[in-house]
């Protein structure tokens, strides 16, 4: 062989080898296709999928075809080929494959607990903490209550496992589930004898809510967990080594304050270190609020109390559980979605969310109708029971509007009328927030904008058609978190100078254990039974914080409930890595401290907060005096019948050593001279729980919001600490001229030593 020919051969072989190496490095992509948009001329969807792939790559080969829960295929492509394929006809999305491991079903990973090392994931000290969950009871047979690897129950535990209908202590309780009680006297006194064919007079959970919250708090790891194949992974609670005690205080007819208070009383007596209450009611003054009353004594005995903020958002001043000795938790989203794609006959497609796990829709598009056009009532658009006309619905997909009845019941109504599927449109109050449901028929929820567009299409097209393509589970969704639209909002109507909620935690589409008594939808007509369920609410965010409090209590047993809350609040984040504020799902704009408090919980930072804002019982008593509580009211709340406020002292709510700041200025009017500045001062004390250091104060505008013309000054602006436990005080002055009533403004105060950043939100209102 000639020398030149040999060189060309070596060059050719080198090129081939390099090409092979490049091909070997191609990542895998999952391609979701609009199956109904297959062009004529293809005998089968698979031929169309293959032709679409060949249009961007001659060498790529299909790895898998998806024909049931998803429509499409997967293939190895270069990023450029993937981008080109995404522009092809009928392609809904081209998603890079994600590497999965058998760890969590997402929340602990999203919070960083899998990266914590040490005690975060496996601390034996957590096993000394018992979390009391006041809810609908427990389904003890679930694997989340497995006690394998647990040591003896702490000697300090005084709780019991009650015997009752369908609840045998020897089989129900163990070293994980260490106590179970039920409280129903108040319920029966108000509602009459319970119907034991519908609920058990025992700690047995016939609802599912209590099993979900208790396993979110401290469920043991369960591999291969999912709901109908969605959110597959290893499910575990926030503090999987903590013990659980359940106190059944909620029944078919509701949760009654006498039962709640009795449950809290027994829980503290039993030795619970944390109480989790995913329940609430109309806001009331503290001395009239049974939960606030029970929580005060719990706090006094060193018990951390976490409560849900409520699901009445995005309406302002819609909070529950606002006492300053309670940690009030709002809800945010995870970085996980369960997408479904609504593909209209005009070629437009919209992304929704669903947990439907049954047979797919036919491959060809179906007729699309609006519920308001196929009804016999004025509110038929809501798809309420008996409102749809079968002769106009049969075999069609129905667009229903949210409101009044449950989301999954709307699908049942469509199914009963013979409908083939449903698209559920958000109202203005729900905005673009997507909450996934385990629908009984092929269905998905869509945001308000998509719902409006789909409705307009129906009214403008003489023959509207649609199909729904189901996309399974998707992680790494951005932006995340966002504040849930349903999460209740501030300001605090009882004490304007106390900012609530305190913080937010994951509360949307949360997977956790479920009862064996009812279906994942909770509907009587749903015969499905699942070990896990995915549901949403501040009821889900509250137990996340309860479990994290158990972690902190195990790591720092000397910390007070106020210290634990401070660590969680001052290390929370309110902005994305880009610096933009966390978004409010209800508005699409920056969330404010009235929406998310201090921000989204960040447990890895909370372990070592550097500084804390601590509070004692005496501090809270001073707060009550500043709130003009009479001796009678103080006694009602604190059980101190002989306590009176010192008439020689000047008390101020602004002196309460809370980790956040809220200032209510008088509005422009007779209250203040126009243009004249008014100054309000708040005093705080920081305690060092870390290494010696010097902290410097910085005041920053809250990104994406108005400052309201407030000037903020911190004095002193530098604090030095030489030892653990050392305390240093400072004063913040807020100066502002009168503004129209309803004006708001927001800042952030940060104390930093270069390693820790101790952050507090500042909120202002003019009233």
UniProtKB/TrEMBL annotation:
| CDD domains linked | PA_subtilisin_like, Peptidases_S8_3
Q: Which domain of life is it from?
A: Eukaryota
Give the start-end ranges of region Disordered: 193-220
What keywords would UniProt list here? Answer: Glycoprotein, Hydrolase, Protease, Secreted, Serine protease, Signal
In this protein, the active site sits at 135, 209, 539
Domain PA stretches: 368-454
Q: Say if the entry is tagged with keyword Secreted.
A: yes
Query: What residues does the Inhibitor I9 domain cover?
Result: 28-103
Q: Which GO terms describe its molecular function?
A: serine-type endopeptidase activity
Q: Where is the composition biased (Basic and acidic residues)?
A: 195-210
Cite the SUPFAM superfamilies for this sequence.
Subtilisin-like (SSF52743)
Where found in the cell?
Answer: Secreted
- Which GO BP terms sit in this record? proteolysis; system development
Q: Does the keyword Cytoplasm apply?
A: no
Q: Where is the Peptidase S8/S53 domain?
A: 128-584
Which cellular component appears as one GO term in the record?
A: extracellular region
Q: Identify the stretch annotated as signal peptide in this record.
A: 1-24
Which Gene3D superfamilies does this one have?
2.60.40.2310, 3.50.30.30, Peptidase S8 propeptide/proteinase inhibitor I9, Peptidase S8/S53 domain
Subtilisin-like protease fibronectin type-III domain location is: 655-763
Protein family membership? Belongs to the peptidase S8 family.
Query: What PANTHER family does UniProt report for this protein, alphabetically?
Result: PROPROTEIN CONVERTASE SUBTILISIN/KEXIN (PTHR10795)
- What name has this protein been given in UniProt? Subtilisin-like protease
The protein's organism comes out as Ensete ventricosum (Abyssinian banana)
């Amino acid at each position: 062989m000639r020398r030149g020919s040999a060189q060309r051969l070596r060059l050719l072989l080198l090129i081939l080898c390099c090409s092979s190496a490049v091909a070997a490095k191609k990542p895998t992509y999952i391609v979701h296709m609009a199956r109904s948009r297959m062009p004529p001329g293809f005998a089968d969807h698979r031929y169309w999928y293959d032709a679409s792939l060949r249009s961007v790559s001659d060498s790529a080969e299909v790895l898998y075809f998806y024909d049931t829960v998803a429509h499409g295929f997967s293939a190895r492509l270069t990023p450029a080929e993937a981008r080109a394929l995404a522009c092809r006809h009928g392609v809904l999305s081209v998603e890079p494959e994600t590497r999965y491991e058998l760890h969590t079903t997402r929340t602990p990973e999203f919070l960083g607990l899998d990266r914590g090392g040490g005690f975060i994931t496996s601390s034996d000290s957590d096993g000394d903490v018992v979390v009391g969950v006041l809810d609908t009871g427990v389904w003890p047979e679930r694997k989340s209550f497995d006690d394998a690897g647990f040591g003896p129950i702490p000697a300090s535990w005084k709780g019991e496992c009650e015997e009752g209908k369908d609840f045998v202590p020897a089989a129900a309780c163990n070293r994980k589930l260490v106590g179970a009680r039920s409280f129903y006297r108040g319920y029966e006194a108000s509602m009459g004898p319970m119907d034991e064919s519908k609920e058990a007079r025992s700690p047995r959970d016939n609802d599912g809510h209590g099993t979900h919250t208790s396993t979110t708090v401290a469920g043991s790891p369960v591999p291969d967990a999912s709901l109908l194949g969605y959110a597959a992974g290893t499910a575990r609670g926030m503090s999987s080594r903590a013990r659980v005690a359940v106190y059944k205080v909620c029944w078919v007819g509701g949760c009654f304050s006498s039962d709640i208070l009795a449950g809290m009383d027994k829980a503290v007596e039993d030795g619970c270190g944390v109480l989790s209450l995913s329940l609430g009611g109309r806001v009331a003054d503290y001395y009239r609020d049974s939960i606030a009353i029970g929580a005060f004594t719990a706090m006094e005995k060193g018990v951390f109390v976490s409560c849900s903020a409520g699901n009445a958002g995005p309406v302002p001043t819609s909070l529950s559980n606002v006492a300053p000795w309670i940690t009030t938790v709002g809800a945010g989203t995870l970085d996980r979605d369960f997408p479904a794609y609504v593909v209209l006959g005009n070629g437009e497609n919209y992304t929704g969310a669903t947990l439907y796990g049954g047979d797919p829709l036919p491959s060809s598009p179906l007729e699309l109708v609006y519920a308001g056009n196929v009804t016999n009532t004025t509110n038929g658009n809501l798809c309420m029971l008996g409102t749809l006309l079968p002769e106009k619905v049969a075999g069609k997909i129905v667009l229903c509007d949210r409101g009044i009845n449950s989301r999954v019941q709307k699908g049942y109504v469509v199914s009963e009328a013979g409908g083939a599927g449903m698209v559920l449109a958000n109202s203005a109050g729900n905005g673009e927030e997507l909450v996934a449901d385990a629908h009984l028929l092929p269905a998905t929820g869509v945001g308000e904008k998509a719902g409006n567009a789909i409705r307009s299409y129906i009214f403008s097209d003489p023959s509207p058609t649609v199909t729904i393509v189901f996309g399974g589970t998707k992680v790494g969704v951005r932006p995340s978190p966002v504040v849930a639209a349903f999460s209740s909002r501030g300001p605090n109507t009882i004490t304007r100078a106390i900012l609530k909620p305190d913080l937010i935690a994951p509360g949307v589409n949360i997977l956790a254990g479920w009862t064996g008594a009812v279906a994942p939808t909770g509907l009587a007509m749903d015969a499905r039974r699942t070990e896990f369920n995915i549901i949403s609410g501040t009821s889900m965010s509250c137990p996340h914080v309860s479990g994290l409090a158990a972690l902190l209590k195990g790591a720092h047993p000397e910390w007070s409930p106020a210290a634990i809350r401070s660590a969680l609040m001052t290390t929370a984040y309110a902005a994305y890595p880009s610096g933009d504020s966390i978004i409010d799902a209800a508005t699409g704009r920056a969330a404010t401290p009235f929406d998310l408090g201090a921000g989204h919980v960040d447990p890895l930072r909370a372990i070592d907060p550097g500084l804390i804002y601590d509070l004692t019982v005496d501090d809270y008593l001073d707060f009550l005096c500043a709130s003009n509580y009479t001796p009678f009211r103080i006694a009602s709340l604190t059980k101190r019948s002989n306590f009176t406020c010192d008439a020689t002292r000047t008390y101020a709510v602004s002196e309460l050593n809370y980790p956040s700041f809220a200032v209510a200025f008088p509005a422009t009017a007779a209250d203040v001279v126009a243009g004249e500045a008014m100054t309000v001062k708040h005093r705080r004390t920081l305690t060092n729980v870390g290494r010696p250091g010097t902290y410097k104060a910085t005041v920053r505008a809250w990104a994406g919001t108005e400052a309201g013309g407030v000037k903020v000054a911190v004095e002193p602006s530098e604090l030095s600490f030489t030892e653990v436990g050392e305390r240093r005080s400072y004063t913040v002055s807020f100066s502002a001229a009168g503004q129209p009533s309803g004006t708001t403004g927001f800042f952030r105060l940060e104390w930093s030593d270069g390693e820790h950043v101790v952050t507090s939100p500042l909120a202002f209102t003019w009233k």
